[in-house]
Prior knowledge:
The chain is of the alpha/beta class.
Amino acid sequence: MRALVTGGAGFIGSHIVDDLVADGHEVVVLDLCLPGAHERRPDYLNPAAEYVWGDCVDADLVARTARGCDLVSHQAAMVGLGVDFGDVGAYCRHNDLGTAGLLAGLHTLDFRGRLVLAGSMVVYGEGRYRCDRHGPTAAPARQVADLDAGRWEPRCPTCDQALVPETVPEDTPTDPRNVYAATKLHQEHLVSCYQREHEGAVAIALRYHNVYGPRMPRDTPYAGVASIFRSALEHGKPPLLFEDGGQLRDFVHVRDVARANVLALTVEPPESGVFNVATGTPRSVGDMARALAGGFGPTAPTPEVVGGYRLGDVRHVFADATRAQSQLGYRAAIDFETGMAAFTKEELR
Length: 349
């Protein structure tokens, strides 16, 4: 089959391209090479794929590029929490308008194949919590006064007791708490609308948890925390932990994420809807920093807790991954220890 991968020169998209090519598919890539992610065109591009350099906002370009495609993997996006609210226009342009342009182009072609969206766990906002006294409880918005005082854990709005975090299944209500999260949820809504109005089309949103691995952007404000920590260690500096380093996440290797995408594009019978893509095993940000430091050897700087916070960030969010296992046949193959040890030694390839 012929597949279009938007953002196929990027961190996750390039691994999807590699896997699709390896499985015998014909692949065309549409990528803007956004400067926030690329200083130049990468040298790891798969020579068996066709590359079109352009913007998903351009629906006519999308239609020309996607002609003859049976599968679409929409990975193109501006990622990360951002520098400040001034990034709002860029996030909306690349994520919301980029998805709208893609879908308008596919509509021109009357595309009714399989469409997989790179979603994100950020749409959940704070994860799922319970109060020991009051049961399941939605975490209220974090207050500046609490954060300034170092009170990191969300608290029950009824009794003020610290809430206990739990795994997040896909039916957890969405609650985006920053601009990036809001645009990722809007992407899901747009893709869902496309499916409803094009009978036979299959739309899948894969909600990635914290992805790391080779080709990860680095030395940019929009890089992921694993890349930021590794860059610090490479320069002989300690990873700096916000809050107390106890924030819980699910760190999943990019090669597992790529495999989840290929499964979503090809599994029979087709499955639509949303799926967490994760390992199912939460780890703290401090755990990750210490694992990376350990990979650099006994003389590596020790991670330092510096406090501080980013108001748009959340305390805990980690996944229930059983739906992807049961319906897509996906299970993460690279465990935390193996993946982090490899990440300390990997180049950008």
